[in-house]
Amino acid sequence: MTEPGPRTAPSRVRADIAHNARVWNYWLGGGDHYPVDRAVGDRVTGMYPSIGEVARADRAFLGRVVRHLAGDAGIGQFLDIGTGLPTADNTHEVAQHTAPDARVVYVDNDPIVLAHARSLLTSSPEGATEYVDADARDPERILHVAGRTLDLRRPVAVMMLGILNFVLDTDEARGIVTTLMGALPSGSHLVLTHPTLELGGEGNEAAMRFWNENATPPITARSRSEFASFLDGLEILDPGVVSCSRWRAAPVRQNPEVAQFGAVGRKP
Ligand SMILES: C[S@@+](CC[C@H](N)C(=O)[O-])C[C@H]1O[C@@H](n2cnc3c(N)ncnc32)[C@H](O)[C@@H]1O
Question: Which atom of ligand 1 is nearest to the CA of 193?
Fold first, then answer.
């Protein structure tokens, strides 16, 4: 990574412990990581060789979902919580490619994402993008701040890709989703991905244990029924709860399953 100077790196950036946003960026082939992130990332890959495929499949899922929502589904507003470091095909780029007037609010609590947020703040002239430095555990604040950029009386797609796995208590994670979706009108969507131990992924469990002893924030996997419970009360779009690599991917044969659920729900 370009070592962040005092102007770009908030004092809470820690280069001595691996951070999820930076390791995820490493697995995606980005350049925003420290030696400690690469060391932990390589150890995890050694234990769980398909983790790189998981990261790439997750991003490809994001692209397919956002293209569908901004296109056929006519969604013009996106709230992307747990954004990650800027990479190729960020939500606003995909959405505004289809619908130039799309409005996107990004939310993350990692200081290094904040330091790079200006790369997320490019927008088509007709649309808008905003970045909010906030914790997913505070959905009321997220809604309050997002409401400055998004019209919360109109449908919003809430994107929570690879983030509820950092809210270890399932009831708390469900409460976050309920608060967010409860505040949004009919026609809003919830887009989720989440790691699981139920879709194979050799070494995944040991790798998560290693992660929790050596990196931050701690992570948990969830079962299909726990994952599906986040979508309670929503109409789940076809093909339902599947490996994110298989969600409306063609041809399916060329997209082997990865150990990451993906699904999209629509508020009736
Ligand atoms: C696995 S990355 C996923 C990034 C992106 N959504 C994607 O799918 O490629 C998870 C992101 O969630 C962020 N994150 C983790 N816990 C969070 C929390 N409590 N509040 C806000 N962001 C959080 C991390 O900083 C990281 O950027």
Answer: 8
